Amino acid sequence: MDAAPTSPDLSATIHIGASSVSMLVTNAGSEESAPPLEFLEQPLPLARDIFRRGKVQRSTTERTVQILNGYLDTLKELGVGPEVVARAVTTNILSEASNSEVFLNRLYIACGLRAEVLDDGEMTRLIYLKTRRRLRDTPSMKKRTTLVVHVGPGNTRALLFKKGRIVRYTSYRLGTYRTAEALETASAEGAVLVRVLREHIRGQINQLQYEFRDETIEDLVVIGYEIQLLAPFLTKAGDTKLSAKSLRSLAAEAAALTEDERVRRYQLDYHTAEGVLPALEINLAVAEAFALKTLRIPGSDYERGLLHDLPVSTSLTARFQAEVVRSAKILARKYQADDRHGRHVAFLSKRLFDETQDLHELATHDALLLDVAATLHETGGYISPKAHHKHSQYIVQNSEIFGLGRLDIQIVALVARYHRQSGPRTTHPAYRALDTVDRIRVAKLASLLRVADALERTHSQRVRDIEVRVTGERIYLTLVGVSDAAVERLAMQSKGTTFEETFGLAIILKDQA
Fold first, then answer.
1. Taking the model in full, what pTM does it have?
2. Are 201 and 274 spatial neighbours (Cβ–Cβ below 8 Å)?
């Protein structure tokens, strides 16, 4: 028998999901299709606790500890330790548990693992990675209008693709276990249970249908833990396509079975079996809402794919960033913001960000948030030109932007708000609610946006570029293409103060000779 690879050659990822805890161990950098060295999965009633009781029971917490310590023992048998765990994450529904922090602290104390809660932004990134693979193995998606639907334990996400690019993203409080627990008191079976279930999900399905009413959906791709587990009962080997009729038949079959029968029939554990019928009915309802006769289910295993993607999902590729910015542009157009002005402010903001990296020391992800904030900073004018910066904050923080989680959106909303009038103040509730690190991020990003917006004061894109030089207590900005910067100097008198207060540098504008 060959010796196990040494530590640098191995990578492990752990997912504490809605109904199970899983771990994938692979050779570092291996493709998803490569056989894993280990794939372990154990059932866990996490979703049941959260949606039934609002918190994680102590018994479930200790069961999680037991499973994780067992997984760490497996790593020891492979000759490695917890240092090869690239990431350990939990389902995003953990954030709805009143004792989520207690749960995470217990895992760290007992197992030495810092588990992070997947937020909405990262879930969309993971769905995006899965969908990119579908674009490779399903060429028709690059030509047709395709709706990708991910039915998760607590929420359903819908991504609309046209010619292989995302043009819209929405999410709904409709999930397999959220639905299952809501129906727990119905005491219904068979056809009656299906009728109650459909009535329960109708409102959210109607909303989804309404929001995509102007689109001609040609293809539907459904992603999710339960529906992909059931793929062998719906599709032929090697095929991803199935008929809505076969999905309807399987849903009827599952409804007629008892829980014990579902466990045996579909080879599931009891916790997963709870979410099977809601998963089938929600996906079926989406297909019926758009009168689709066929749909697709990815042939890959959902859980293994998620675990494989976790180490790379936080890395923002240029393609992914472009999709995020496209989503922001679509939102800006919806609220009739000046597109040319917004994009030029974004360009100038990016130039400032890049040229002052040694000053602000922010990350690539922060550059993306600045780009989005610049694109959206004048959307508030749709409501009213008066105090439009506050309206911009309201619009952004109540919108969904593909690829951004709630914290990201809150930061973007605040940066957009602070593009004019006063800078960040702790008297502003949303700013005060952030921790110190994120307040500083907002202050730095808002400083850059205000300077860029001052340089684009004329809304005519006359500042073609900027040259930046920092000397002593001053930052010199040479305005390329401008022979008289009087307008920009006047605008900078009010907008440049936040930058000067944040970085301790006086801004000096120089005409281009």
1. 0.81
2. no
